[in-house]
Amino acid sequence: MGANENNSAKPRARPIVRLGIFLISHSNIVSVVCFTAGVVALLLLPILAKNTYISENALMPGSANNMLSTHHVSDANKFIKDLTDLEFRSGSSPIESQKLIAHYMSALDAEVTFHKFYPQFNHFHPLHFFTSPDSDIISENATCSSFGINTFGIIRAPRGDGKEAIVLVTPYNPNKVGLGEALSLGIAYSVFSLLSHVTWLAKDIVWLVADSQYGEYSAVAAWLREYQAPAFRRVDIVNSETCNESSTFNELGQDLYLDGKLYGGFRRAGTMAAALVIKVAEQGNQYEDSLNIYAEASNGQMPNLDLINIVNYLAVHKQGLRIKVKKMWSLLGSKWLNTLGVIFESLGRIARSLNPQWNPATEYVEGAATLASSLYYQGLGVPTGPHGAFRDYQVDAITLEISPKVSLTKMIRRNEFILRGGRLIEGVIRSINNLLEKFHQSFFLYLLTSPSKFVSVGVYMISFALLVAPLPIVAAYLHSNASNSTPQNTSALEVDASHKSWKWLNSARKVLVIHLWGVVVSLLPFFLCQVPNTTPTTNFILWGSLSASSLLILYLILGSPIFEAAVSLHEKNKWASLKSVTISTAFIGLSLMSVINFATAEIGALLIVPICLLARPLKLDTQARSWRTLLRASCNLALGFIGFPPVAFVLLKGAFEDFYGINVSDYWNWLESLWAWNSATYLYIGVVHLPCWALCINILFHPC
Amino acid sequence: MALPLKATFALSLLFLFSLMLAASAEEEFSEELLLKPLPDRKILAHFHFRNEAPLAADSFARHHHLFPKSISQLVQKFHIKAMELSFTQGRWNYERWGGFDPISSHNAKPPGVELWAVFDVPQHQVDASWKNLTHSLSGLFCASINFLESSTSYSAPEWAFQSALGSLRYGTLPREAVCTENLTPWLKLLPCRDKAGLSSLMDRPSIYRSFYHSQRLHLIMPTAVSDGSKSGIILEQTLTVVLQPNNQKASMNHVGETKIQPSWSLSSIFGRKISGRCVLAKLSNIYLHFERGLVTQLDNLQKKSSKFAANDTGPEAFRGNAGFELSVTPERVHTELEKSSSVLYEYPIKEYKEIEQFDLGLTWKHPVVWSSSHAPLYASRFLMGSGNERGAIAISLKSTEMTKGLVSANNVEERCKLQVNVLQIVPWYVKVYYHTLQLLVDERPQVLADFVERMRVSPSEDKVSPGVMELVLQFPCEMKSAVLSIEFDKGFLHIDEYPPDANQGFDIPSAIISFPDFHAGLQFCEKSQSKSPLLSKLQERSPVLSYTEVLLVPLTTPDFSMPYNVITITCTVFALYFGSLLNVLRRRVGEEERLLKNKDAKKAVFLRRMLNKLSAKLRGRPSESTPSPPSSSSSPFVSPKLILRVLMVAGIAVAWQYYSQ
C-alpha cells in the first residue's frame, strides 16, 4: 500500500519486477486461485494419468513361449505335499522343513547355503536417520534361542559370467506352514526347477526362502546385510554363550553335502539386478485369480516403473490374472468422489481433450482411490513388504501377492494355479534376464492410478507447486506490508528508523526457537523408550505433557524481559511479521520435504498451507464483527484443530479405514513405526509441521 | 632348349623336396584329446594341439610346412618370448570341477579375453611392442583385443603372476563375447583345420552349448640348455570344454536318491565320430582320465562286488569294472605312482573306414559319488556396500580338505606355512585406498604385517594406468578362513569415456590367487610315455593357480540425453543474459523518464477510474470516494489492452493445443 504512493512517481519498473509486485500486491486473490488450482490439479491427476508402456526395449516381455510345463508343476506339488506332511508329523522341529527345502534345492544342482541370523528389532536411533544399514549393530537381546535360518539356493547361469543375479524371495514360517506359504514355495520351486536346466540364463538365480518367524522384512534385511555388507568379525555376545541350537545349525550345514567337502560358507552371486517377492494369499476374492502388486519402499521410493510394467503386461496379457494395486477401499464408496467423477464426466469433452484415453466416472473413482493409497503409502515412508529391504541397496524389487479364486484344497485347481503363477514368474525373470543394463529407462518417480496407468513426476509436481506457490508471495506481501506501514506513534519514529528493516529478526528468532522446540519434541520419544514397562498410552500422555511443558518453559524464557529488550512498540503489526517468517519456513520445509518424499510434502501441504495462509489473530476478526471476519475466524479454528498432528492422524485414519476403535495409543504406535522404519515423515512432522502449526496457533491467539 | 628347362625344373623340385624333408623333420605337430568325467555329471573335453618349429635366423621369410606363418611372423616382429591368449565363456567351477589338477590351473581362465606376453626387447620398447601386438592379434582373431592397447587396460605385474619371465604385460577384457568367429581363425592355425583328425569333433553347436569353453593359444620359445639361444617356437593350442551329456532321464531326477552318472559316447556329446587322424600329426591320441577320487570310489565298488575277482589280466581288464564299462579297449593304461592314484586310458587314433569310426563310450553301472581335488584355499571375491559413492572389495579364502590334510600331515615340529600370492588389478575409476587393506584371519582382525611377506602396490593414475596390488601372504596351515578387504571410492568418468551400455556397470577383472608351494602335476610311472606333449604337460610341476569372479561395479552414469538439456539451458541463459545486457546498453534512462512522465500524466486519470470500478466490482460494493484499495493503485500497468493481449495469446495457445491433438 505504502509502496504505491511512491510508485506512481517512479518510472515503470522492469516487467518481471512489475509482475512480482503485481502478484504480491494481489496476494489474497493469488493465494486463493493458486490453492484451489492446486487442489483441482490434484483431483485431476486420475484424468491426466497416462497408460504405462515398456520403456526398455531389451525387456521384450512375453516374446518367448513359456517353458514351464505341467511336469514342473507336479514336481512342485510333490514338494508342497512333502512340506505340508512334515508339518502334520508330530514332533518335527522347524529345522526339518529347512532341511527338506535345502534337499530339494540341491537336487536341482543348486548351490545351497543356510544363513543364520539374529532378528534385529527396530529401535529408535536418532542419529541413524538416512544412514545406510549398519552391519555392526547387533541387538543386545539376541539370544541363542531366537535366531532364524534363511535357506537359499543359487543356480549359476551355464554360460553367464556371474556378474549379475536375480533374486526370488518366498517368506516362509517354519513353525507354522500355511497353505498359502506352501503354495508360494511351490510356485518358486516350479520356476526354480525349470531354470536349473534352461540354456538361456544369463544371470544367476538366487532363491531365498526367508525365515519369517521374526517378520518377513527383518529376515530379508538380515540376508541382504550379510550379502552386501557382511561383518566378518565373530559376534562375541552370541558365541560366548553355549548354544545348543547353533550346534544343530552346524549339523544342518554338515549333512547337506554328501561328502562334506563342499564349501559351506555364505555364497554370493554378483550384483543383484532385480528381486521378486512371491506370496500367495490364503483367502482369495470370489471372482477370479488376482495379483496384488506392492511396490513402495522406505521413504516413498519406488522401483523402476518398467518392473511393474512387465509384471502387469505378463499378468494381464499372458496369464489372464486380474491385477491390482492397493486402493483406498473406503474412497470407492464415497459420495463426493463419485459426484466429482460425474462432474468430470459431464465435462467429458474437455476431459477428452486433455487426455483422449479418458473414461467415465467409475474409472475416475477407482483411479482416485488408487492414487490416494499410492500417495498415502508413499507418504508414510514405511515399506509395504519385504521388497523394501532391497531398495536400501538400490535393487529394484516388488512384492507379488497372488490370490486364488477359490480355496486351493482341490488338486486340479491348485495345479492350474501353480502353472499360472509359475509362468508369470518365469516370464518376468526371462524379461529381466534379457536386460543388459540395470533398470534405468523408465520412471522412478511416479504415482500409480491403476496397474496400467501412472502419473509421472512432471505432472504431479504441478499440483504441489500450485499449493505452495502462494506461501512466498503472501510472506513477501506481509513483510512489505509490515515494514512499510507508517508508524502511528510519532514517538517511536526514531527507534523505528533504525529497527525498521531488522524488525523481522525478532519474529525469526521466535520461529527458530519454536522449531528448536520441534526438534526437542521429536527427540523426546528416544528418551521415553528408555523408560521400561510403559504402555503406549502412558508414553503418549508423557510425551504430550513433556512437550507442552517444554513449550511453556520456552515461552516463559522468550517472554522474559531479557529477550524483549528492543521490541518495537507497535505490537499491531508484529503478528504480520511473525506470520511472514512462519510462512517462509513452512515453504522451505515443504520444498525440502518434496525432494525427500514427495507424497508426504503433498499431504502436508494440504494440511498446513490453508492455516498458514488464513491465520489471523482471532481478536482482530472478532472485533471487526462482519460475517466475513467471523467466517474466517471459525475457519481458522477448524483448520487449527485439523492441523494438530494427532487430530490429523485420527481424521486420516478415519477417512481411510474407520473410526471404530481408534484410541490415543494408536498415534504413539503409528509414530513408533515411523521412526523404527527411519521414515522421513517422522522428521517432517516433528520439525516442520508441528512448529508451523504451533506458530499458526500462536498467531490465532495473538494479543493485538 | 626344353631339356635344360625340364632339368632345372626337376632339380628345383628336388631341391624343394629335400628342403621340405629337412624342414618336416624338425617341424612337429601332435593332436590329443583328454576326456574326463566330472563329479557333477558333466564331461570335460580338453583338446591339445602342439606345433613346434625350429627357429632359424632367416625364418622370417621362410616357408613353414606345418607351423602357421602368421604366428611365426608375430614372434619375429615383436620379439615375443612367451605369450598366452585365451578366449573364455562361462566360469570354471573350482568347487565341483576341481582346482588342483594341471587342467584347472592351466586352462581355467577368467571370462572374456586374457592376454599376457613377455617381450625380449629393451625396457622402453615393451609398451610399444605390446600395443602393436594387441592390434595384430585383434586382426588375427577377430576380437577387440585392440582395446588392450590403452594404458588404462593393461599392467605389468612383477612377481605375483608368471614370475621370472622378464618384461611381462598383462591385460584382460572381461566383457568380450566369445563365439565362432574367434574359433575359426584359431582353427586356421592347425594344419588340418577341422577337416580331419581330432579337431573334426568340434561341432560348433555342441561346443557353444557347453557350460564352459576356453580356447587358448600359448607360445613359448624354449631356450636350448647348451648355449642359451632360442631353439624354436612351440605353439600350444588348447580348447577346454565342459559339456553335459544329454541324457534322456535328465528331467526324471528324484529327490533322495543318488543319481547315476549319465553314460556318454563321443558321438552323443559332440554329435560326431572320429573318422581318422590328421595325417600331418605325428601323434594323435585320445585319453580318458579318471581322477583320484573317482578311482578310489571305483575300487571300493570293486571290492564290494568281489565276484569280479582279479583273475583276468591284460588290457581287457581295464575295459570294465563293477562301476563302469568302456566301449573300446584302451591301448595302454597309465597309473599314477602314488597309492590312490588317477588312471589314464590311452587310445591312439588310426585310420578308420567309413563304417567303423572311432567312438569312445562310457557306460556307468552304479551311481558313483566323488569330488575333485581342490586348491588349498577356496577363493571367492565379492563387492560390499551399496550406493554410488563408495564400496569395498573383499577376497575371502576358505580352507578346503586339502589344508586339513596338511595340518594332520605336518603337525609335528615346525609351524607349517601356506603361501598365497594375490594379484589384483583395478581399473582407475575404482579408486582404491590401499591403506584400508584389512586382513581378518579366522574372523579376527589381524595386523597386516604379520602375514604379508611381500607387497607391491602401484596406485592407479587417473585415465593413465590401472592400480595393481601384488601380495605374498603367509598363512598358518591350520587357518580356517581369511578375508582381505579393501575400500574404494567410485570415480566419475568423462561423458565420452563411458562404454556402450554404461548402465550395466563396470567390470573389475578377476584377481589371480596362486599357491606357489603347491604343484599340480600327475606322476605317471612309465617314463617312456613322456613323448606325448599332453602327458608331459600333465606331469609338469606348475604352481596351482585360480581366478576369482569378475565383479560388476555400478558407477554413477549420467543421463545420456543430458548434453542436449545442458545445451538448451545454456542457450537460454545466454539469450537472457545478452538480451538484458543489450537492453541496458542501448537504453537512455533520462530520456525515458521524461517520456514516461508525460504518458503517465495522460493515462493516470483514465486508469484510476477503470481500476476503481474493477475493484469495486470485486468487492461487491458500490465504489465510493474511499482511498484506492491496495490492490488497484499498485498496478498502473494493468491496462485493458494488456489484459486483452494476454487473453488473446492464451486463447491462441488453447486453440492450438486443441487442434494439435
UniProtKB/TrEMBL annotation, chain A:
Source organism: Cajanus cajan
GO BP, one annotated term: attachment of GPI anchor to protein
Domain of life: Eukaryota
Residues annotated as signal peptide: none
Entry annotated with the keyword Transmembrane: yes
Designated name of the protein: Glycosylphosphatidylinositol anchor attachment 1 protein
A Pfam family: Gaa1
Keywords: Membrane, Transmembrane, Transmembrane helix
Keyword Nucleotidyltransferase: no
Gene Ontology CC terms: GPI-anchor transamidase complex
Alphabetical list of InterPro entries matching this protein: Gaa1
TM annotation in the entry: 21-49, 457-478, 511-528, 540-563, 630-652, 681-701
